[in-house]
Design brief:
Elements: H1 3-16, H2 20-25, H3 32-37, E1 46-50, H4 56-60, E2 65-70, H5 73-81, E3 87-89, E4 102-108, H6 117-127, E5 128-139, H7 146-159, H8 175-181, E6 184-197, H9 201-209, H10 218-231, E7 237-249
Parallel strand pairs: 1-2, 1-4, 2-3, 4-5
Antiparallel strand pairs: 5-7, 6-7
Helix pairs in contact: 7-10, 9-10
Length: 259
């Protein structure tokens, strides 16, 4: 799928499934959003939430001067319905924010899927003030236990899929290196394994709906939900490794960081 096709797919997906990532993370044993928020607690000034979705980060940063940006009208309508704002409709590659006006940027689960990634990171650098911080949350392909790997193999077999065809796979476990290559100094690169409760047919259906599956036929998705509903049971846990990377833009007076 080319870049234009991917953007159309992702936009349509989120318009049709507003709040889906927030509901998916609601299955976890603790909040990934709160984990992402930790480096931003106490930040003074504006925190810009890029690809904010239904704005769950607004909830975990109640004292911040928070503002959200997302391209999906459906997601922004869901944020408004939940009383979360202010939010603006815009793409991550063209942020409607003055240069050097933002203290922090948070990016929850968006950097592997936004396009074009170099333009997005350039915009993040542009809007951050000197000394500002980017806090990004991305999936990790490492950290699974043998049982965890077996669980995801079960999910992918039900879907008859080998994995999600994200356009920026380098922005998963390699995100720190990507940021260094685009003018950032990395301050933290941490991994944590969350555990999703797949204990009911509804949870299994939510798991399937929360995955990007372009080109997957509706009958295949329905069959996967039925199969995983039989797999679901009380106490069933599915490991979800995530990576949190913090970084700041390199200024003209600061030597670039070596990889």
């Amino acid at each position: 799928m080319d870049e234009q096709g991917w953007r159309g797919y992702v936009g349509g997906y989120h318009d049709a499934h507003p709040g889906i990532t927030e509901r998916f993370f609601g299955l976890a044993d603790s909040s990934p959003y709160r984990w992402l928020a930790e480096p931003l607690l106490g930040v003074r000034g504006t925190v810009l939430d890029v690809a904010c979705g239904s704005a769950p980060m607004r909830v975990v940063l109640p004292e911040a001067g928070w503002a959200g940006v997302d391209l999906s009208a459906g997601e922004l309508a869901e944020a408004a319905r939940r009383g979360r704002g202010p939010v603006v409709r815009a793409g991550a590659e063209a942020l409607p924010v003055r240069s050097g006006s933002v203290t922090a940027v948070c990016a929850a689960m968006c950097l592997p899927v936004v396009t074009p990634l170099p333009a997005v990171l350039g915009e993040v650098r542009r809007v951050l003030r000197p000394g500002g911080v980017l806090a990004a949350l991305v999936p990790s392909r490492s950290g699974l236990s043998p049982a965890g790997a077996l669980g995801w193999a079960r999910v992918l077999y039900a879907l008859r899929s080998s994995g999600q065809p994200w356009p920026n796979p380098q922005a998963l476990d390699g995100l720190a290196a990507v940021l260094r290559a685009h003018g950032f100094r990395v301050g933290g690169d941490d991994r944590r394994v969350f555990r999703l409760g797949i204990e009911s047919a509804d949870a299994a259906a939510l798991l399937v709906d929360a995955l990007y599956l372009p080109g997957t036929a509706a009958h295949r998705t329905a069959a996967a939900k039925r199969s995983l509903a039989r797999w679901a049971r009380p106490g069933r846990r599915l490991e979800l490794p995530l990576r949190r990377v913090t970084a700041e833009p390199v200024t003209g007076n600061t030597p670039p960081e070596q990889p």
